[in-house]
Amino acid sequence: MQEDNVPGAFTALSDIQMNDKNSDSSFDYYIKLVPTIYQDLHSQKWYSYQYTFANKHYTQFGHGHRVLPAVWFRYDISPITVKYTETRQPFYHFITTVCAVVGGAFTVAGILDSLVFTAAEIFKKAELGKLS
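The chain above was modelled as a monomer; its predicted structure follows.
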């Protein structure tokens, strides 16, 4: 299946070009592959691979002379498969979150009301000179 159809897929090497005017240059590419399964809400599966890469550009020198340029591809294929499963939060999770927000708003309003009321009482006592 095309990587365009896999949710969240990207191709890290799609726009990479390596060229060098120095004819003695060598290139090393390190590629790590991880088999991946994507499963959507309708249990449709896509089998793909995730990968990371690193590259190194260098000029090799031997004992007093240059070594021929080379291109090396080093693969590391993971024995573990990653599985992404798309799930939906149940409706009660939404209701619980709304209740938590409303309850938190009432709590903060109650604290603010209590602070304002207490400050007003202290101010009234200070005006009457009954602060002790």
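Residues 68 and 128 are 97 Å apart (CA to CA).
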